[in-house]
Write a structure and sequence with these properties.
With 605 residues, the chain is an alpha+beta fold. The protein has five domains: 88 residues, GIY-YIG endonuclease (3-Layer(aba) Sandwich), CATH 3.40.1440.10; 143 residues, no CATH class; 115 residues, Nucleotidyltransferase, domain 5 (2-Layer Sandwich); 144 residues, Nucleotidyltransferase, domain 5; 51 residues, Orthogonal Bundle (DNA polymerase, domain 1). It is 45% helix and 19% strand. The strands form four sheets. Strands 13, 14, 15, 16, 17, 18, 19 and 20 form an eight-stranded mixed beta sheet that branches. Strand 14 and strand 15 form a beta hairpin. 31% of the residues are buried.
Length: 605
């Protein structure tokens, strides 16, 4: 029977719940919640209401609707979050997947380390502290460390340039011990650096105690000038300790959330504050409709983000009040098990942190929009292309399999995993084929798939086989035996061993070489092959070393294992001299000589 919208509107109950709008293909295009389903759903179909562009577009595609009654609006909110996450409706606001912060950099890789201000964290073996929200506080801290510990601030290349120039002003005002003149040993300077590192790690008590003792001693000795100097240092350390300890006056854990939006794109920036310290940040890209307000987008983000994150802080600070704020707060309180506060700060340090988050969101939106779209096309977009090509409703996790052997020697299998278009290397698996003799790729593949699909249930949305009809049929046979229904396709190659198309449901489906979907299939196929070859090569090398060493007199299992660990390959062992061989754990001069003679006997003839 055809769905009569007018008749169904009359049946709506005046109760809280969730409603789902479907299009003519029965796809869910919108999910919403309501205190009264009767009042809320009817509003969509009242022509006199000013609904906005987004709602008009959505309503024009509604073929039918359904609803789920709940006991309360809070239950409706939770259900709405779950349904949006599951169905990702077209007309709901969805998550699609910087001004830099200052760091304190300690160049521990140098012989005479320095403490520096840095705007970025590089892979240079230095130790970094931060990020911090205040560049002024960072500079104050660095100045204080120079005074307290006598850490050099110059850029001289020590010890290479030692003694080539006179000591600088900092030496004469007693803020640097002049390592450039060798006036302090490397060991003594290193102790000062250790104290500075301890200070930066938040260990303020020792220096506070030491400065107070020195201040009192100077005062008792009537050296009031020195006492005043120590008192000023003591006050500076106390202020720095307080600044480092708290971000605002009430301590605790909080997330600071701010939004920047332009047309259909938005970026939400989150600062994570734990124990009063800013420990990190993240940003999320959101696709929105032009007529959605920032408050609506931010409210939707809160529900989606905190429905999926395992930790909820005590306080969430926003730049705007959002719809259903009290209800969201109640829901988060239930999830956390303790009271959660949603705040919109208007002044002071808290407001500055929200403003900083907003500025970072705007910078990401401005600078990274094109990069984000390209990356989404390569990953999530490519997965959507493949799903559409194969007629699959959902495609987030893909597993690809390959077999590697040389004339049946040491057959191995590989499983690589891609989630949302990106490799998930933590889920990769290696298989050493045990029950197949010789080069039988089909039987080896059957063993590998049976072992994988029998042992854990995190099943993929699609299995991709390196090959065509034969490999796909093997996988389908395993599915039938295990009573599983997972789509299986083959990645078919041409005569030049390049990806050509996809074999699915008894036919080869061509795929455009210019599409992101094709490029992703190629990357998955190459990665599965690389992972299998890499594993096979490592086993083959170890097996060859193992078998040859068995033939050397006096080399038992322990020494064989030690040699394999030390040299990895036969070529390395053959190239080693007796002295090097004897230095291996468990070896002695006699055993080393036997190994050397084994590889070099007859070489001089």
């Amino acid at each position: 029977m055809a769905f009569d919208i007018e008749e169904e509107l009359k049946k709506l109950p005046a109760k809280p719940g969730v409603y789902l709008m479907h299009d003519e293909k029965d796809t869910i295009i919108y999910v919403g919640k309501a205190i009264s389903l009767k009042n809320r759903v009817r509003q969509y179909f009242q022509a006199s209401r000013n609904r906005g562009v987004k709602i008009d577009q959505m309503v024009s595609h509604i073929a039918r609707f359904e609803y789920i009654i709940t006991d309360s609006e809070l239950e409706a909110l939770v259900l709405e979050c779950n349904l949006i996450k599951e169905h990702r409706p077209k007309y709901n606001t969805m998550l699609m997947d910087d001004k830099t912060y200052p760091f304190i950099k300690v160049t521990v890789q140098e012989d005479y380390p320095r403490v520096l201000f840095s705007r970025r964290m590089s892979k240079d073996r230095a130790k970094y502290f931060g990020p911090y929200t205040s560049a002024g506080a960072v500079k104050d801290t660095i100045d204080l460390i120079h005074k307290l510990y006598g850490i050099r601030s110059c850029s001289r290349a020590l010890p290479k340039t030692m003694g080539k120039d006179r000591p600088c002003l900092n030496y004469h005002i007693h803020q640097c011990p002049a390592p450039c003149q060798s006036y302090i040993s490397k060991e003594a300077y290193g102790e000062s650096v250790k104290k500075a590192l301890s200070f930066l790690n938040g260990n303020y008590a020792p220096v506070l105690k030491e400065l107070e003792e020195k201040m009192n001693q100077a005062s008792e000795a009537l050296d009031f000038e020195k006492a005043i100097e120590y008192r000023e240092l003591l006050n500076s350390v106390s202020q720095i300790a307080q600044k480092q300890k708290i971000t605002s006056s009430d301590m605790g854990d909080r997330d600071i959330v701010a939004l920047a939006a332009e047309k259909e794109d938005a970026v939400v920036q989150i600062f994570f504050v734990r124990d009063g310290r800013l420990i990190g940040r993240d940003h999320f890209c959101v696709r929105i409709m032009e007529d959605e307000s920032p408050q609506e987008v931010l409210g939707t983000f809160l529900k989606q983000f905190y429905a999926g994150t395992p930790y909820i802080p005590r306080t969430i600070m926003l730049q705007y009040e959002v719809p259903d704020q009290e209800l969201i707060q109640e829901w988060l309180t239930g999830r956390r098990g303790q009271k959660v506060h949603i705040q919109v700060p208007r002044k002071g340090e808290k407001e500055k942190l929200v403003e900083l988050a907003c500025k970072n969101a705007q910078m990401v939106l401005t600078q990274d929009r094109e990069r984000i779209r390209r990356e989404e096309g390569r990953t999530i977009g490519a997965m959507k292309e493949i799903a559409k090509l194969l007629g699959l409703e959902k495609l987030e996790r893909v597993e690809a399999y390959d077999i590697s052997n040389i004339s049946g020697f040491q057959t191995v299998g590989s499983m690589v995993v891609y989630e949302k278009g990106r490799p998930k290397r933590s889920d990769y698996r290696k298989f050493r084929i045990r029950g197949v003799q010789g080069a039988d790729d089909y039987a080896s593949m059957e063993e590998m798939l049976t072992r994988r699909l029998s042992h854990y249930e995190n099943y993929p949305d699609l299995i991709m086989m390196d090959g065509g009809k034969g490999q796909v049929n093997v996988a389908l046979r395993v599915m039938e035996a295990l009573q599983l229904q997972i789509p299986v396709c083959g990645m078919v190659k041409d005569d030049r061993h390049r990806t050509r198309g996809i074999y699915f449901r008894n036919q080869e489906i061509p795929i455009s070489r210019d599409s992101e979907g094709f490029r992703l299939v190629t990357r998955i196929q190459d990665e599965a092959h690389r992972f299998a070859i890499e594993y096979h090569r490592s086993l083959r090398s170890k097996e060859q070393v193992h078998s040859v060493l068995d033939d050397i007199p006096g080399i038992g299992p322990a020494r064989r294992k030690a040699l394999m660990k030390a040299f990895q390959t036969l070529e390395d062992i053959r190239a080693a001299d007796v002295e090097t061989l004897a230095s291996v754990d468990g070896m002695n001069a006699r055993a080393a000589a036997q190994v050397y003679e084994f590889f070099h006997a007859g070489a001089e003839e």
